[in-house]
Amino acid sequence: MKVLVTVKRVVDYAVKVRVKPDGSGVDLSNTKMSMNPFCEIAVEEAVRLKEAKVASEVIVASIGPSQSSEQIRTALAMGADRGIHVEVEKELPPLVISRALKSIVLKEKPSLVILGKQAIDDDCNQTGQMLAQFLDWPQGTFASKVKVVGEKLQVTREVDRGLETLELRLPAVVTCDLRLNEPRYATLPNIMKAKKKPIEKLGLKDLNCEPSYGLQTLSIFEPPKRQGGNKVESVAELIEKLRNEAKVI
User: How does it assemble (predicted)?
Assistant: First the structure.
């Protein structure tokens, strides 16, 4: 079974982002970039399937700027076999990303596609669902446990009422939640081996996909700073402040 995993280059989760003075976007100069944490979980799950002899090959795909090859190399160091890099310089909406991934899936013919449930930069949570719709494949979203049973896939996901287990026919699309696994750290020998693993370079035209920017960002701004709290001496004073200052009653 061949498994395709997607990864995205984002600002490191531990970095406090800075907004440009003109509000046109986030300042990325001298900012640490890394693999989206949900994508790391997806790579880890695919590598575990390979180690369990369930998957025969793990392919990593990324759609982003030229620097995204760094995140592909990280995934290769974790245990993936080869990479596909679709170079684009502008941020694309999930709809275009999904169409490009569909072309990659039709080209590679994997039995399973694993994605992070969302990226921490835009929090769209749309690409996996759109890809499943374009492919007309069954999907299991927010997966906290994945198990391959013969020609079917059992996906456990957290819902409001508890846990829900789905049984999907392969091929299928799965998006990962944080509780699925804990990604491994790439060892130095594997990092060196990853440098020799192939990364195929493609453009959107190679995938018969045209860039479309239907969404336009008008402005980006930081949330207002939280104000300090006040202590009150009595319930009557609390009610007075809620009525006169907060104006909530």
Answer: Heterodimer of an alpha and a beta subunit.
Q: Compute the average pLDDT of residues 214-237.
A: 83
Contact 140, 199 (CB under 8 A): no
User: Is the N-terminal amide bond of 171 cis, ω within 30° of 0?
Assistant: yes
Q: For residue 199, give its domain range.
A: 2-223
Residue 49 within any structural domain of the chain: yes
Q: Is residue 29 part of a domain?
A: yes
8, 14, 18, 23: CA torsion to nearest 10: 40
Number of domains in the chain: 1
Closest by CA to 132, choosing from 85, 166, 89, is 166
Model confidence over 119-143: pLDDT tens digits? 998 889 999 999 999 999 999 999 9
The answer to whether residue 236 is domain-embedded is no
The pLDDT-based confidence of 26 (bands split at 50, 70, 90) is confident
User: What CATH number does the domain containing 30 carry?
Assistant: 3.40.50.620
Which distant-in-sequence residues (6+ apart) come within 8 Å of 81 by Cβ? 57, 58, 59, 197
The DSSP string of 10-47 is: EE-TTSPPEE-TTSSSEE-TT--EEE-HHHHHHHHHHH
Q: What is the mean pLDDT of the chain?
A: 91
Cα–Cα distances (Å) from 189 to 7, 61, 73, 105, 160, in that order, read 22, 22, 13, 30, 43
Q: HSE-up of 43 (CA within 13 Å, CB side)?
A: 30
Structural domain contains residue 144: yes
Question: What pTM does this model have?
Answer: 0.84
Higher pLDDT, 229 or 179: 179
